[in-house]
Amino acid sequence: MKRMRRPVLVAASLVVALTLSTPGALAADVDEVLQAARDATFNASRLTISVWGGRTQVSDQWVEHWSGGEVVRTNSSWSAYGNGRAMTMGDSGKGFAFMSNRPVAVSERYSIGNVSDVTHLRRECLRVEINEGDIRRAVLIVDKLTGAILRSDTYTDTGKIFRTTSLEDFKPYRVYAQPSDSGSIPLEVVMHADSYGLPEEIAGYTLVDVFPGPGSSEQGFYSDGLFSFSLFTMSKQTKITGLDNPMAFVTNLGVYDMVPTAQDVRLHWSDTESNFVLVGDLPPDHARNVLAELPLPDAGSMFTRWWRRLFG
Amino acid sequence: MAGVNPVSERLSMLMSCYLDGALLAGEIDEVVAVLDSDLDAIAEFHRLKGARRAVRLLPMLEVPLFLLPGGHLSEQLSAFLDGELTTAEVPIVTDHLLTCIDCRHELADLDKSRIAVRALPGVEPPEFLSLRREEHVKRRGWRAAAVVATGVAAVTLAFALGPFSSSSETASVTITDLDARHAAVASVPALQVSTP
After folding, report:
1. CA within 20 to 30 Å of A279's CA: A21, A63, A227, B140, which one?
2. Whole-model pTM?
3. How far is CA A294 from CA A25, A210, A233, A291, A309, in A?
4. What ipTM goes with this model?
């Protein structure tokens, strides 16, 4: 028996050693990669470039990230995010604290594709492909030491990159930087609300939580674990400001007002009764699929269309 | 002095225990014998007594209830809902809420009452309460103007309800506000995904 046991042990050890030395062992599934990235501690400059409707949006920020939070400086303005809170700092600083503890799992439609060793910013990294079915949805460059995602390229369903995020001047530690007046920012606390109208799932995105929004609106937060969006539903009479000079987001079902930023996209439309605003970081093809399952934009009567054509 | 000489250091410790009433019989004899003869020891003894008195005379600090283990947050919850807590206080409250079911229930009840109050219909005060007497006198003069104003309002309303305008109410939201709300909610799962 002992003679038999030795080769088995050697073979088992070999298998374990090979498994551990494979880069894939460090990126077993999408959940693990994303969780490690959330727990990473670093400060860096973050450049985000995205392309929506043929126009390029660029954002250059300094970020300090740690498990459960992130402080962001854009030009001279500061903001902080984490644990359900988002706040802008400064004289007119304000913020929100959302009470939610519903877990979000990464959708089964995502899987890890090719994983390989690369060197990026002179650091040992893994290049991890995340696939959605047969298509490549994202390529991440993950720092082996910290788990931070040093670069991510997100693709559309046609294989084009629509957003790139890259870190520069990466330092794997915190400097605890934030403006001194951050302790006195008023926070609006928002509690979970019951919803009777929002679908539980839209195009692969699960309804995670519902909250009361501003102006008697309702906020439904949807996520598939990799991307997320909030759908705000409000009365048609509610005026939405900040959507000046929108671009048109055209699907085969209608035309939507679109104001993209480097990080996310805002889409606005209304039907006969309600106004809708969608804010999220989802790719354009996902946005199309989501919009197809929501109330369609109201084209208006012939007279209204004629009036809009004349006067905008 | 006490820190330099090891014997004095031991004596200093013994005298401190003596003041606390924590010495054994033999040790008490030792301290008393030294205090009878050693001037340095007597000076050290007076210094220790002075320090103790100073500590006793410090004002008592009241520890906030929510900082004590097992304490509840009744007083802070309302301020929490109204967004009146400082940024430093919010994590204390949210952390406590994660572990205290009583406070979570109380917070939910408070929130329900707040929503119920908000949902109450607005009541217009009767005319005799809102108008002062002199305004009553002037009212006749305004009646003609009111007829004209009503006409103008009717025309405005007709325009507002028609295709000439898309808005007839004052409720408005900014897109940056919606952005911030999304960012706040999106930051929640960051801590929750790993929870089994």
Report:
1. A63
2. 0.63
3. 40, 16, 11, 5, 25
4. 0.85
